[in-house]
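Example record

The entry below shows one chain as it appears in the dataset: sequence first, then structure tokens.
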Amino acid sequence: MSKKATQKPKQPQAETRHTPLRVLLVDDDPTILTMLSAWLEEIGYEVKTAENGPQAMTEMTEFRPHLVITDLRMDGMDGIALLKEIQQHNSVLPVIMLSGNAQISDAVRATHQGVFEFLTKPVDPDNLFRCVQSALNHVGADQNNNEFAPEIIHRSAIMANLLKQAQRVAKTRSSVCIRGATGTGKELLARAIHRASPRCEEVFLAINCGALSEQLLESELFGHEKGAFTGAVRKNIGLFQAASGGTLFLDEVGDMPASLQVKLLRVLQEGTVRPVGAVDSITVDVRVISATHQNLELAVKRGEFREDLYYRLNVIPLYMPSLAERREDIPLLINYFLTTLAVKESAAEPARFSPDALEYIVTMPWPGNVRQLQNVIEQCVVLSASPLIPLSLVKQALCDTNNQFQTLEEARQEFDYHYLNRVLRMVEGEVTEAAQMAGCCEAELRQLLAIHAINPMSFRKSSIEGNTAFENDGVFLH
């Protein structure tokens, strides 16, 4: 072994962490394993070794490494075969490959397969550390084993701290206001809070306060009596009554009209709701979780949002960070979305991104946050001609999503679809009554239903069941 391969490396500045990053070393030469283990352990990494591919795959499940360093030439399962097995287990786990007598074709083959870096033996320690640190910049200590919100994929400290706060808040009766940009997952956090609360056995209902007209929003929230207004052909109990005992999620509460803010404040203060057209108030027991992408403090100063309502809703403020603020979560999210798409499409194995494409994805600003990332990944998987998604396709997908904007016709079609769903739910699928409420003839309404492929029979259910179905409609999901 050369002097260069055995010399003590310069010590890089190790990153301070509560949990060491885990590195799996795979090589059939015990001397190489001993040397590399000593180097990496000395600067703070947790290291596990394996002398062949099958043993490495066993360690993958138990050790859950953040990085794999493997030899290319090994008996039985070589480095390329091991790389393929690893990618089926975790498509974004970085792999550094070593070889003492590699051909150019070997390096090309490994690169096409998606290896993070290809290094030759004897190993230069400083070069190895550079590659290791570069690979681990995209990963971190896995903190996603969180029973509170397992569907919120994360490993970043900022998300771990947020979920700890939310878990403590969940046990209380306090109102919660979740801030954050569109697409960050505010409703996922609200649902997690509900599941961890004493109300977990009761209903969780959600509504987007900016998606409905003022009259429809008032009826949806507070209910109405039969005959309360034109088209009110039957009684509607409203979401506050339907969610009594449980949780009501008011998404985009900053978009609520001023007249309804007054009525919402009364419900929060008194614990009673009076449906439109009713004389008596009805006692309700609802925990309210609100969310908004707006700056409510600024809205209060401008007179666009009531200050007293702001303080009622903002008892416990939580902030959902943007994707750009939690970049270390991006590889985990990528792996989750790729695996989900593979299952959905019954693919033999998940697609994967080339190392340069993965690095590019991690460094992009992502103004649309997790939702935009998911859309870009799906577009890349669908359009890629091979299982290894190249950088050029990622750039194309990002350009497409950044330039997307609804046309006026698309916006009208979307509004019509959601409006028809609201009306049909209120009248339990009675087309004649729905036409009266909508102020159009029955034939025109049936034509619109056909255009949007809406079956009125699917709304034939009791009032309470109809209200509990609200959470499944796309209008109310964030």
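Notes for this example: The chain has a mean pLDDT of 82. DSSP finds 21 helices and 14 strands in the chain.
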